[in-house]
Design brief:
This protein is mainly alpha-helical. It contains 15 helices and 3 strands.
Length: 324
Amino acid sequence: MTATLDPSQLQPRAHLLHAARVDFLDHLKVERRMSAHTLDGYGRDLAALCDWLAAQGVAAWSELDGERLRAFIADEHRRGLSATSLQRRLSACRSFLTWQVKRGLLAANPGSGIRAPKAPRKLPNVLDADEMTQLVEVPTDDTLGKRDRALLELMYSSGLRLSETCNLRWHELDLDAGLVRVLGKGAKVRIVPVGRYAAAALRAWQTESAIGQSNVAGLSTATARADAQRPVFPGRDGDPITPRAIQLRLRQLAMRQGIFKRVHPHLLRHSFASHVLESSGDLRGVQELLGHADIATTQIYTHLDFQHLAKVYDAAHPRAKRKS
């Protein structure tokens, strides 16, 4: 492999490599409509590869081969990156190189046969049904309480992602039919049921909010349409509430409701999936509700359900009980 260059020689080489990276990120943003969070992750992972290649004397992507890419992953591993981070980094590299192949910039993807170290499977934490009831039943004596109740009920009822909740608009909710239209990852649209408790909480919040008040006032059709485009959960400036604001609020509400676990938005989604699967046994249905592209992503909840059954077995079966 080419010897490492003097730092003064790196900038021109890195610039050439980074130019293709920027084009790829534009492609993900414009054509695949990926979220800012995903774009940021891809950008960091590919920047690390660009800088590493420049340090190795690589001036063009056509010089990248499988051996160099394996060396990059090995160096990142020695640097202390976890198996999960390495898998994500290699996935970003493969996607980028596949894009280059499709554009005719590379003859083949040098990352197609490379595998990152396996990460240990970590089962998601969930709240049980009683804990979820305790969490969502926040007092609704004031405006903020009604907002919080609607937020919690909807996220748990429909299994929405944090970004989906933040970006939701009133016109995407059909409370009479009990449905919500969600724009998920990769700009994929799915229709998800809204439970009766969530629908009731959302109606109360709608009446309390400016949307409900303007509808009661009988304003013009144009104004009503504008209201329907507003976010269901606005921030102080009227724009959609930020992910950070929801994260902090959930933490506060959990402590107030006596839930002494680390409660975060995705925990509500995990709990939704686990409870629906436990009751229905319909893995494909849960996959569609969650908007997972690959059923392998959904299958982690079957492991979670089996873990619960194993605990029941250990506690109840005569041959499973341990001697005291």
